[in-house]
Automatic annotation (TrEMBL):
Signal peptide residue numbers: none
Sorted UniProt keywords: Membrane, Transmembrane, Transmembrane helix
Keyword match Transmembrane helix: yes
Pfam families hit by this protein: Ferritin_2
Regions that span the bilayer: 25-49
This protein's name: Ferritin-like domain-containing protein
Length: 334
């Protein structure tokens, strides 16, 4: 075996060990609370499952549509200074959509590369909204009230504060290309885990394939954002961008609870990762794709996803980026 191969194997082992250490940390952090509530949670979950019918494909697609409304508004405002047309926010039966609080155009003049990424992602999210609305027809829910404000009392700053990132002042995702990328990082990984978690709930093979197509695009978006942040973080360590992704990752994990590890299904208490690399020097390995030890992306349930976008742990029906909650059947977090 060559020295190069030995170095690569050692580096991969180190990356795996880092993931194990992160998982052990979260097990220790959440273990006591999880054990204390395990019995009550099992009874509660069983009662919900028995009392309610399984969500329909329309329920699941509408849940996804709520998230696509949020992402599309954020990216369109960042690129154009304006959001979705009213014709794309009304319900399938014509009920007017909600309002958007905040949103602003980012000055990308000094960063043509991130500007190009932003324009591409904005166009993709617009296409996702349009596609889901067309598939749902009259069943499509209207856009709920959305808050994407970059103000001190907005959800982005609240999320950054929870992650411990606001010591230098309020966080505004529209203030710079770097801040925009961190705002996008907050959404994109969640979108990937949301679509992966929803896939087993769909019954139509047509919709499963369509959802897989959107999942793939969201994963590309996440990789773009993570790669751009990684490159900038390596080039300018003083900006602490890599460290910021780790803080956001930890905050998201603290919101979505600590599900038992299932490495085959891609579920676990540490179902989130920043972009901190492993190894050193020529053996450094980036962490662009957040995977478990089997090389699988993680899943989140709709309730866990809502915990993150509502910016609240436990059981809630509104908050954060959706001040009045999402529209449709799947609207309760936890």
């Amino acid at each position: 075996m060559t020295d190069t191969n030995q170095q690569l194997i050692a580096a991969f082992d180190e990356r795996a060990e880092r993931r194990n250490e992160r998982r052990d940390f979260f097990k220790a952090a959440f273990g006591a609370a999880a054990m204390a509530g395990a019995g009550a949670a099992a009874v509660s979950l069983g009662s919900v499952v028995n009392a309610q019918t399984a969500p329909t494909d329309a329920d699941i697609l509408n849940f996804a549509l709520n998230l696509e409304y949020l992402e599309a508004q954020f990216y369109l405002y960042a690129v154009n200074g304006t959001g979705l047309a009213a014709t794309l926010t009304a319900s399938g039966t014509g009920t007017a959509g909600g309002t958007v609080t905040g949103g602003a155009k980012v000055d990308f003049s000094g960063d043509a590369l991130v500007a190009a990424y932003a324009r591409e992602i904005a166009a993709d999210e617009l296409a996702h909204v349009t596609f889901l609305r067309n598939q749902l027809g009259t069943s499509a829910v209207a856009m709920p009230n959305i808050n994407i404000s970059g103000a001190a009392d907005g959800p982005f700053n609240a999320a950054a504060t929870a992650a411990g990132l606001t010591a230098g002042g309020a966080f505004n995702p529209y203030a710079s290309p770097e801040n925009f990328l961190l705002g996008a990082f907050l959404f994109e990984d969640v979108g990937v885990t949301a679509y992966k978690g929803a896939a087993p709930l769909l019954t139509s093979s047509i919709y499963i394939e369509a959802a897989a197509g959107i999942l793939a695009v969201e994963a590309y978006h996440a990789a773009i954002v993570r790669t751009a942040l990684y490159a900038k973080g390596i080039a300018t360590p003083s900006k602490m961008l890599i460290e910021a992704t780790e803080a956001i990752s930890n905050a998201r994990d603290s919101l979505d609870g600590a599900p038992a590890l299932d490495a085959v299904r891609g579920i676990g208490p540490d179902g989130d990762q920043g972009i901190l690399p492993s190894g050193t020097g020529v053996n450094t390995i980036a962490n662009i794709a957040p995977l478990n030890e089997n090389g699988l992306a993680y899943s989140r349930t709709p309730g866990q996803v809502l915990n993150i976008v509502y910016l609240k742990a436990g059981t809630n029906t509104a908050g954060g980026f959706f001040p009045n909650g999402v529209n449709g059947t799947l609207k309760t977090s936890g």
